[in-house]
Amino acid sequence: MTEASTSTRISDTALIFEGGGMRASLTSAMVVTLLKAGLSFDWVAGISAGASNTVNYLSGDAWRARRSFVEFAADEQFGGFRYFARGQGMFNAEYIYQQAGGPNEALPFDWEAFQASTGDMRIVAFDAESGEDVVWSKEDTPHIDDLMVRVRASSTMPGLMPPVHLDGHVYVDGAMGEDGGIALSQAQREGFEKFVIVLTQERGYRKEPQRFPAVFRGIFRKYPALADALLTRWKRYNETRERIFELEAEGKAHVFVPDRMPVDNSTRDLSRLAAAHRMGLSQARGELSAMLEFIGVTLPAAETGR
Description:
306 residues
């Protein structure tokens, strides 16, 4: 961690980032806030945009955490209909994840800091052929290319981005998996009973079933397991959120829930993205003391922003 002069390691609490595309313009503010407070979670999980938040957090890079979901959207190679028509995806994933993170590129990733960080990660993607989740850790990413292709795989929205072919498998967005996009079950399987969970939808949100299921089955006829997962995701997602709020009520989870989510997963208006990030910073800073109390950490006033 590079933002605070000292860091506090947290080993008994899982940190989980939900995805949500450009809604992470708001939740990336939690990355910034945690880094500035010097909070170093030993176990961090993320799916889709949450995978980007995860690796940015572990690299200790508050600048990149913000830029990834605010300024970077202005990059002319970021995506759009021109790239979609070429088969590169509405979001130009190869550029976003596997080119822009290199040295002297638009969004350089601090690989050395990531490797040196004490925390481990769990990034989840979905196998479009088998219908099973795959979970990757730092051990699976000995090189920056290994990391970035997996972040890309976890973030590959079906139909909007081409699937990732890796090690003989075809991967898409981990949100198609068991928990609908929030890696709670994985954390529980690994023995965690306390959680800090960063969500990207408002508290009253409920996902609705997809309309026109026959259309989706037609689009993904090559991958029937993916079509099934996509059409049933709404149920798994809603059930996971219910479990999260039950854990919160039991005092086992601190849940960051946006008071208001002013953007959607494909917003590219820089002023709206910047405003969402400011909203996230305000809320995250306001909730920091309660989160510290939950995880049992006391920080100097300067590091909590008081």
